[in-house]
Amino acid sequence: MDPGLAGLLGGVIGAAVGACGATASAWIAGRKAERLAEIQTSALMGQARLQIAADRANSLRESRKAAYVAFADGWHLEYGTLSEAAVKLGGIAAHDPPDEREERRQAARRLWNEARTLQRSPDRLLSVVHVEGPDQMAHAAQAASGALVPYFTTVLDWLHAIDNATETRQHDAAAAGAGGDAHRKLLEFLYASADAVAPDGGSNRR
To answer: Choosing a second label site near 69 at 20 to 30 A (CA), which of 40, 51, 62, 96?
Structure first.
């Protein structure tokens, strides 16, 4: 082959090989950049999903906490008013002057009726706890609400006994026992509430 032609051909081939090499290098670099971008995008999406999940969990905890606190506040108001009625009844003695006895009896009846009216609020808030969940909280709230029923009954029995001047120490003891049982059920609800809204889902009891 003519030396000049051979040199020209070699130059063309060398240029072509160099161009192919440059193209291949650019393609590899491009693929690396694309892959890196995919990894970064995937990581960002993963972080976003985790953040969304964390925000949802926090929102759920706050919503549940508000429902639990509202129920407990309503329960306390009802329980406290009923307890005031029991205190009024406990202050009545057989040797009291008739006017004082009647005044305390009427005050106790008024407080008992007031407690019955207040019962509507915890009953309504109980439905909210059922909606918020979880199931164990709904059960705990139901138990706390149900425990007030015997308390109402024993205080009313005591009131009727005083109306008929047949009250005994057993009426006082029965009301105290029912009140104590009801309060323990609320404590169980509060302990369960603390666990239900804990960020790690663990127990908050000491």
So the answer is: 51
